[in-house]
Amino acid sequence: MRIVKVKNYEEMSRKAANIIAAQVNLNPQTVLGLATGSTPIGTYERLVELCNNGDVDFSQVTTINLDEYYGLEPTHEQSYRYFMNKHLLTKININLANTHVPNGKATDIEAECRRYDELIENAGGIDLQLLGIGHDGHIGFNEPSDEFVMGTHCVTLNEITINANSRFFNSRDEVPKQALTMGIKAIMQASRVLLIASGDDKKEIMKKALFGPVTPAVPASILQLHRDLIVITPLDI
Ligand code: GLP
């Protein structure tokens, strides 16, 4: 694990964007694993700038997002498809057909999860996976549990996550209770993982995840076993 200590959110975002841009410049057909949440917004803003300045070309890139709320239309303002289109995908020169988010409106959840795993496999796996972390240590929507779940699956969100994410909705009741998430296997098989975290409220969970025991009770702790993990954070951990 390599920890890059930065001054603040802006520097974290700039460094993360530079690493992603370098990856795309080295391999224009890169498969990027992307994340949502407030943490990567600055990274996406920098990537849009780099693209507009002609410093990176996304025309041959494929993106595969970690997760999606179950039951939300892609056009719903809080859906992760909407988030990705708004913050990044419609602002760069990527072919939208090559951008993927689980289908939160799938009627056959099992089939959708299998489809998503096949999509990742057919893409040859993920070259660079960007991750944030939830307050309970979740990555994607892999919530604390008794075991690490390998494949894409449907999860019931726990209270901590629902409370944290309710800030984006009009009321707590509107937060979906379930989500589809990529499993631990695809994340751990990514050639490189880039974990970003900022805000004092993430300090304790980052310490636990990176230096505590590897346990499904703290899903992000599995990243300690990843062969190429880069952590960029302003936090003193
Ligand atoms: C959501 C996403 C995660 C993200 C987490 C943290 O639950 N599913 O991928 O890491 O939120 O979000 P934030 O960056 O807003 O703290």
Record keyword descriptors for this entry:
237 residues; seven-stranded parallel β-sheet; 7 helices; 10 strands; globular; binds 2-amino-2-deoxy-6-O-phosphono-alpha-D-glucopyranose
What does this protein structure show overall?
This protein is an alpha/beta fold and 237 residues long. 32% of the residues lie in helices and 16% in strands. The protein contains 7 helices and 10 strands. A 7-stranded parallel sheet has the order 1-10-9-6-2-3-5. A 3-stranded antiparallel sheet has the order 4-8-7, covered by helices on one side. Helix 1 crosses helix 2. The chain is globular. The mean pLDDT is 97. Bound molecules: 2-amino-2-deoxy-6-O-phosphono-alpha-D-glucopyranose (GLP).
Radius of gyration, whole Å: 16 Å
Strand order of the largest sheet: 1-10-9-6-2-3-5
Helix-residue proportion = 25-40%
> Which cofactors or ions or other ligands sit in this model?
2-amino-2-deoxy-6-O-phosphono-alpha-D-glucopyranose
Q: Biggest β-sheet, characterized?
A: 7 strands, parallel
In short:
The protein has 237 residues and is α/β, with parallel strands linked by helices.
Task: Please write out the topology.
Blueprint: E1 2-5, H1 9-26, E2 31-34, H2 41-52, E3 62-65, E4 67-69, H3 80-89, E5 99-100, H4 109-122, E6 128-131, E7 153-156, H5 159-165, E8 178-181, H6 184-189, E9 192-196, H7 203-211, E10 229-233
Parallel strand pairs: 1-10, 2-3, 2-6, 3-5, 6-9, 9-10
Antiparallel strand pairs: 4-8, 7-8
The structure holds 2-amino-2-deoxy-6-O-phosphono-alpha-D-glucopyranose.
